[in-house]
C-alpha cells in the first residue's frame, strides 16, 4: 500500500440523512478526532448524505442537537475537501445554493478564502475513492 | 497482511456483526495478522457480557471474547459511542457514578484515535456496517 512519508489518504463517506440515524453525527466525531493525526482527509456526501450540508437546519421540533454549524469550522482543522455528488443533489432537487457556504483559508495561496465544497459527478467520485488508502463509510 | 476491522452495527439486529466476526476468524485462519477490531456506533453493543441470546443461537460476544483470548487480538470499544449506549467498564462506571459495568472479557474501552491509528498502521481497514 502506498504510504508516502507516513501520510495516508482517508475518505469519510457520508450516505445518510443528518437526523434519522446517528451515523452523520458520529461520522463527524471521527472526522474531528482524526484531524489530529495529520493525514490527507476528504469527506464525500452522497445519497441522503447530501442533506447533512443543507442550509438552515432547525432541529427544535425533534429535540436533537443541530450539529450542522460544525461543518463550517472544518477548515480550521485543515479539512477542506468536501465532495458532494452531483447526481445525489439532482435526484433530490437540490443545488449548491441549498447547501451551507463552507470556506477555508488556502495557506498555499496567501490565505485566500476558498470554498471547501466541490460538486463532483459519480464517475469523478469513483476515481477519488479509488485513490484512497482508507475509506470509512457511514 | 496486517488487517484492521471496524464493526458499526450491533449484534443480532444486523448481519454485519456476524460478518465481521466470521471475517476476522477466517483472516486469522489464513495466517493474517489482525492489528485491532474497533467497535463503533451500535457496534459497541457487541461488547456487553449481559446479552443472553437463546441457547440454540450463536453468542456473538462470547465468540469475540474467545477469539481475543486465543489470538491475543485487541478489541476496542469507542468510549464516546459506549457512553451514549450504556456500555461501561469498571473505570467508566466509577467515573460516571454508575452501579455496575457490563464489558465482556477481552474488550477494552478507548478513544476514536485508536481507529485512526489502526487505519494508519494496517495494510487494510475493513469496515462492516449497514
Automatic annotation (TrEMBL), chain A:
GO molecular function, one term: transferase activity
Annotated family: Belongs to the DsrF/TusC family.
Pfam families per record: DsrE
Entry keyword set: Transferase
Native organism taxonomy: Bacteria, Pseudomonadati, Pseudomonadota, Gammaproteobacteria, Thiohalobacterales
NCBIfam families: PRK00211.1, sulf_tusC_dsrF
Keyword Transferase: yes
UniProt organism field: Thiohalobacter thiocyanaticus
Family annotation (InterPro entries): DsrEFH-like, Sulphur_relay_DsrE/F-like, Sulphur_relay_TusC/DsrF
UniProt name for this protein: Sulfurtransferase complex subunit TusC
Highest rank taxon of the organism: Bacteria
From TrEMBL, chain B:
One Pfam entry name: DsrE
GO molecular function terms attached to this record: sulfur carrier activity; sulfurtransferase activity
UniProt-listed InterPro entries: DsrEFH-like, Sulphur_relay_DsrE/F-like, Sulphur_relay_TusD/DsrE
GO BP annotations listed: tRNA wobble position uridine thiolation
Protein localization: Cytoplasm
Protein family (similarity comment): Belongs to the DsrE/TusD family.
PANTHER family for the chain: PROTEIN YCHN, SULFURTRANSFERASE TUSD
Organism: Thiohalobacter thiocyanaticus
Superkingdom in the source lineage: Bacteria
UniProt protein name: Sulfurtransferase complex subunit TusD
Assigned keywords, A-Z: Cytoplasm, Transferase
GO annotation, cellular component aspect: sulfurtransferase complex
Amino acid at each position: 500500500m502506498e504510504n508516502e512519508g507516513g501520510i495516508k489518504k482517508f475518505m469519510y463517506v457520508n450516505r445518510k440523512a443528518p437526523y434519522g440515524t446517528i451515523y452523520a453525527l458520529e461520522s463527524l466525531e471521527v472526522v474531528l478526532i482524526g484531524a489530529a493525526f495529520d493525514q490527507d482527509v476528504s469527506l464525500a456526501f452522497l445519497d441522503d448524505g447530501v442533506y447533512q450540508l443543507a442550509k438552515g437546519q432547525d432541529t427544535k421540533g425533534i429535540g436533537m442537537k443541530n450539529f450542522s454549524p460544525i461543518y463550517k469550522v472544518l477548515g480550521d482543522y485543515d479539512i477542506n475537501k468536501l465532495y458532494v455528488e452531483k447526481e445525489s443533489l439532482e435526484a433530490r432537487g437540490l443545488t449548491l445554493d441549498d447547501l451551507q457556504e463552507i470556506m477555508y483559508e488556502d495557506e498555499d495561496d496567501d490565505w485566500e478564502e476558498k470554498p471547501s465544497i466541490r460538486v463532483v459527478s459519480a464517475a469523478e467520485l469513483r476515481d477519488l475513492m479509488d485513490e484512497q488508502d482508507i475509506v470509512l463509510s457511514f | 497482511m496486517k488487517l484492521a476491522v471496524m464493526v458499526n452495527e450491533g449484534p443480532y439486529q444486523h448481519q454485519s456483526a456476524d460478518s465481521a466476526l466470521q471475517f476476522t476468524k477466517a483472516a486469522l485462519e489464513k495466517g493474517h495478522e489482525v492489528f485491532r477490531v474497533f467497535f463503533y456506533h451500535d457496534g459497541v453493543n457487541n461488547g456487553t457480557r449481559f446479552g443472553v441470546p437463546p441457547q440454540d443461537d450463536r453468542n456473538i460476544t462470547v465468540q469475540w471474547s474467545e477469539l481475543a483470548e486465543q489470538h491475543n487480538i485487541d478489541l476496542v470499544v469507542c468510549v464516546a459511542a459506549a457512553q451514549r449506549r450504556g456500555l461501561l467498564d469498571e473505570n467508566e462506571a466509577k467515573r460516571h457514578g454508575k452501579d455496575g459495568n457490563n464489558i465482556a472479557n477481552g474488550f477494552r474501552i478507548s478513544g476514536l484515535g485508536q481507529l485512526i491509528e489502526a487505519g494508519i498502521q494496517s495494510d487494510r481497514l475493513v469496515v462492516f456496517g449497514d
